[in-house]
Design brief:
The complex is a heterodimer of chains A (439) and B (204).
Chain A: H1 6-14, H2 24-40, E1 50-56, H3 66-75, H4 82-95, E2 100-107, E3 113-121, E4 126-137, E5 141-152, E6 155-164, E7 171-181, E8 189-201, H5 204-212, E9 223-238, E10 241-254, E11 262-279, E12 282-295, E13 305-318, E14 321-334, H6 355-358, E15 365-375, E16 378-388, E17 397-406, E18 416-424, E19 432-437
Parallel strand pairs in A: 1-3
Antiparallel strand pairs in A: 2-3, 4-5, 4-19, 5-6, 6-7, 7-8, 8-9, 9-10, 10-11, 11-12, 12-13, 13-14, 14-15, 15-16, 16-17, 17-18, 18-19
Chain B: H1 7-36, E1 39-43, E2 46-50, H2 59-66, E3 71-81, E4 87-100, E5 105-110, E6 117-121, H3 123-132, E7 136-137, E8 147-155, H4 172-180, E9 189-193
Antiparallel strand pairs in B: 1-2, 2-7, 3-4, 3-8, 4-5, 5-6, 8-9
Classes of the chains: A mainly beta (439), B alpha+beta (204).
Chain lengths: 439, 204
């Protein structure tokens, strides 16, 4: 029905049971009255109750923007408002790129309080494209990861392309594919299988260091490519503590085709703890993990080693101010290949330093700490740490920087950082520009 | 018609009128049930309807209500005179129903007049309250002609559930437009028709 006919039909068909709606003006006035009255009244009878909590029904760790989290935080403790909850559901639906997000109410722990349970409907089958990592470092160039994911119920298949010159000593370029089963019998068990195929390229400094390396801690020289098969299972021990166990079968193809390939087959274990506390205008977040990669002869590995790493991140935010502290430590026993060795001086650790200046082969010992202070989108950070080989002198390095970070438009889900970082050393200052997201 | 000394044929001749009679009976019975679904009566100069066997707080809509959502229902009551297609008066309403998760009772608000509401109702009472609050003025109806009442109810799907604060155009005009479209397959909808009646025959 055409809109132009509506006022006429409204008045013609309404009969005497309706208020006289003889003109467009009358119709508009009636509508406006309806709007004004509705503004003053929540149509939901449960609007008399206070929201006790807002959680996801499926208890999955969805990644939401700080705006969505702040909105959830604001609504808890206030009277239920359907309109506000609908807006929140719409925002979350957009951020998670879900088919639909709805909310359900349940009785709270206290009389006159209700719990809000958000239900995410990913749809019958869903395809998603994302750029989980994108970084530019004026010394080390570009790094990017692009992924396409297909979701079918609890099954997720992800295929991605990687060009990473930031994380490891070598630049890796290649593809990775991953299958995730998000629930296996219960939501407390997840299964994953990952396949990675990379071609490796080396910086001149690394190749020179390899030529002159007398270290017995390096498990393999330069390799041309890597192929990794990695099945794993994650168990939710006690929320929010999870334990991942799996196997990694890594094949290293040497630079010289005539040479034999080497394997680095390892048992992988990761304990991960993530918790967040919300109170009035204050958000605290703790993220801690311990990982062990044990390459053992039992798995037929050519390179035997144990790699231990611990990391801790604590964030505190009050109104517009925030403080974040990061601590990372690691130790490798045995002969680990280059891709397992610790690195500092990239776009997220010891920012401002060049990793090839610090140690072109990486190290088997690591200690690192970082403090970041933020006010609104401004960030000031101080990094310190060292990467070294066992038995060699420890040289502690420091750096600092300033930049802007936060959610900007489409980047709302992940942290966007644009920073200038300076290595703190005697002599000339040589700043490094870092820009990127989700790293 | 030739009557043959054939028992089977004779049985057929006997059975045919019985079958026809039975079909007519069932048809009449069917019409009777259909007419009885929507009962028409008079009150305060208006024509009201009741539908004792109608339950629209069921299925998906009921589940959404029990989950704490607001579920609007659109109502259209039309009166036809002379023939069923000749609509002479119509009333449209949107009722918003919600369910109190603590009291386990229903609440209904008539959207066109938010002061008109009722709290703490059972499901049957909530359905009845909606029907009580949709009516057509008797003065608009011809007294000398045969009349039919037709009631149509549609639940509003969550995706279409635009609250008035977000869509200033939700109004009688919007309801007219909604009922001008056929309901979607997944949309809960009910349609009831009364038996033919005359205005003068209506009882309170």
């Amino acid at each position: 029905m055409k809109l132009a006919l509506i006022p006429f039909l409204a008045s013609a068909l309404a009969g005497q049971s309706l208020p006289p709606l003889g003109s467009t003006g009358d119709l508009d006035t009636a509508s406006q009255n309806l709007v004004d009255e509705a503004r003053a009244t929540d149509l939901n009878v449960n609007s008399r109750y206070v929201i006790e909590s807002i959680t996801f029904k499926d208890s999955r760790p969805y990644k939401l923007s700080s705006l969505a989290l702040a909105e959830m935080h604001r609504l808890v403790g206030s009277k239920l408002n359907s309109e506000s909850l609908n807006r929140l559901a719409e925002r979350i639906c957009g951020e998670l790129r879900a088919y639909n997000v709805t909310f359900k109410l349940a009785r709270g722990g206290e009389p006159d309080a209700v719990k809000v349970l958000l239900e995410v409907d990913k749809g019958p089958g869903k395809f998603d494209f994302s750029v989980p990592t994108f970084v530019y470092n004026s010394r080390q160039g570009w790094t990017g990861v692009a992924e396409a994911a297909a979701t079918f119920g609890p099954n997720v298949i992800t295929v991605g392309g990687v060009s990473d010159g930031d994380t490891l000593i070598e630049r890796t370029e290649g593809v990775r594919a991953r299958y995730d089963r998000l629930s296996l019998g219960s939501d407390r068990v997840r299964f994953a299988f990952q396949l990675e195929a990379y071609r490796d390229e080396y910086n001149r400094a690394t190749l020179d260091a390899l030529d002159n390396d007398l270290s017995s801690s390096l498990g393999a020289g330069a390799y041309r490519s890597r192929l990794n098969f990695e099945p794993s299972a994650t168990f939710v021990l006690a929320k929010p503590l999870t334990f991942t166990v799996g196997l990694s079968f890594e094949q290293l193809q040497p630079d010289f085709p005539a040479a034999q390939s080497e394997s680095a087959n390892a048992v992988i274990n990761t304990l991960h703890y993530h918790r967040r506390w919300d109170s009035d205008a204050t958000i605290e977040e703790l993220d801690a993990g311990y990982s062990l990669r044990a390459a053992t002869k039992m798995l037929g590995t050519d390179l035997a080693y144990n790699r231990h790493a611990v990391n801790l991140r604590y964030g505190y935010r009050h109104d517009h101010q925030s403080v974040e502290v990061k601590l990372v430590a690691g130790v490798i026993y045995g002969r680990a290949p280059l891709f397992e060795r610790f690195v500092l001086g990239d776009s997220s650790t010891l920012r401002g330093w060049n990793k090839y200046d610090l140690d072109p082969l990486g190290g088997n010992r690591l200690a690192y700490g970082s403090v970041t202070y933020g006010y609104r989108i401004m960030r000031i950070f101080y990094d310190t740490g060292s990467v070294w080989d066992e038995g060699k002198p420890v040289a502690v390095k420091q750096s600092s920087g300033i930049g802007v970070s936060g959610g900007l438009g489409i980047f709302q889900k992940g942290a966007f950082l644009l920073a200038v970082a300076f290595p703190l050393r005697q002599g000339h200052a040589d700043p490094v520009l870092i820009a990127g997201m989700n790293f | 018609m030739t009557i043959r000394p054939n028992g089977r044929l004779q049985i057929k001749f006997v059975a045919a009128p019985l079958l026809v009679a039975a079909l007519i009976g069932f048809e009449l019975l069917g019409l009777g049930v259909s007419s009885e679904e929507l009962l028409v009566h008079a009150g305060s100069g208006d024509v009201h309807v009741t539908a004792p066997r109608l339950h629209f707080l069921t299925g998906k809509s009921l589940q959404r209500l029990l989950d704490g959502a607001v579920v609007p229902f659109d109502f259209q009551l039309s009166l036809a005179a002379g023939s069923k297609s000749n609509v002479v008066a119509r009333s449209l309403e949107r009722f918003s129903v919600s369910y109190d998760v603590w009291q386990e009772k229903f609440s209904v608000i008539r959207l066109r007049d938010l002061r008109k509401s009722s709290l703490s109702l059972s499901a049957n009472a909530a359905e009845g309250w909606c029907l009580d609050n949709i009516f057509v003025s008797a003065s608009a109806l011809p007294a000398d002609r045969q009349l039919w009442a037709h009631l149509e109810i549609r639940s509003v799907e969550p995706r279409d559930q635009v609250l008035p604060v977000r869509d200033p155009n939700i109004s009688i005009a919007t309801l007219i437009e909604i009922f001008s479209r056929t309901p979607r397959p997944q949309q809960d909808h009910w349609s009831l028709e009364s038996a033919a009646f005359h205005l003068a025959d209506l009882k309170p």
